[in-house]
Amino acid sequence: MHVFSEIELREAARAIVSARMKSEKAVLKLKDGSAQQRLIARGIAAYSLALALIASELGGESVPDYEKEALEQAAATLTDLSARVEKALPKFAADTPQHTLAVRRLRAFEIACRLLNIELER
Fold this sequence. Notes:
This protein is mostly helical.
């Protein structure tokens, strides 16, 4: 089932890879066991799961069997991250790199959430 175009999926993957890389760097600087570290770790897990679903859509391969709880956690995490980006978006002037990044991430998270929900419905 192809819900999104190849271009949309590739752009979403690029934005999610960027967010994951930034999170992987940030988590190294945080205190072990802190709330911030746990939050970023959940984000990294959600990004990884979302990237696997996008790769599956792009390659037409079957999706690995994920536990329902993992899919639900990833969807909740991406929904929370989307809300954070939406809240910050008005602070960025249009046509600035920050604004463009935020818009791209929002679209990527939207696509990832949709793919997660499709997988949850199976």
